[in-house]
Amino acid sequence: MIRVVIADDQVLFCSGIEMLIASQDDLDFAGAAYDGEAITVLAAQKKPDVILMDIRMPKVDGITATEQILAAAGLESPRIIVLTTHQRDIAVLSAINAGASGFLMKDATPEFLLAAIRTVHAGKSVIAPNNSLALIHDLSPRHLGQANDAVISALSVRQKEVFLLAARGLSNADIGAAAFISETTVKSHISGILAKLGLSSRLQLVALAYENRLVQ
Asked: Which tens digit of pLDDT belongs to each residue from 45-68?
C-alpha cells in the first residue's frame, strides 16, 4: 500500500482527494493537514510515502514545509508532489529546488493524479506540462554573463558530459548513444551526479543547469 497524505487549506478539496485515494486498492489515505505547520507534524507521525502539498497555505508555505519535511526525514524521505493553480507559478521552481518530485495543477484529472502518485512512489519525477524543460527555462531567472561552471566542479569529466546531456532533457538511451556508454552506466553516472551535487531528482538537475547558464 502507498500511504498518501495531503496538505491544503481547502477542506472540501482534501475531502475529495481522500475519497479518490480510498477508492484505490493500492493506495491508503493517511490523513490531511490544512496548514504548513500541521503537515510537518502529520508527516512525522504518519510517515507517508507520498505527500500532496499545496504551495500557498497559512502559517508555513508549502515550499518551506517541503524543505522541513525532507530535512527531518533523512533517508526515509517521502516523495512530495506540489499542487498549484497556476502552470507558470514561479514558486514551482522553488519547490523543485526544495526537493519536490514534481508538480500538478489542481484541475488535473483524477486519473492523472493517481498515475502521478504511483510514478513518484516508483522513484520518478512527474510534472504537469508536456514540456518540463520549457517550463524550467521560462521560470528560471535570466542572468547575464558567463556560465557558472563552479557548481559542477566536483564532477568528473565523464559525469560533466552526462550532466549536460541530461540537462538538455535526453533520455538514458539517448545519453548512452551520445556518450557511447550503456544505459546501465548512464544510470550509475546520474546517481553519482545527484549524490555529488546534493540533488534529489533529474528535475533539480535541469533547474540547476538553467539557473547557472550551463545550457541554453
From this structure: 999 999 999 988 999 999 999 999
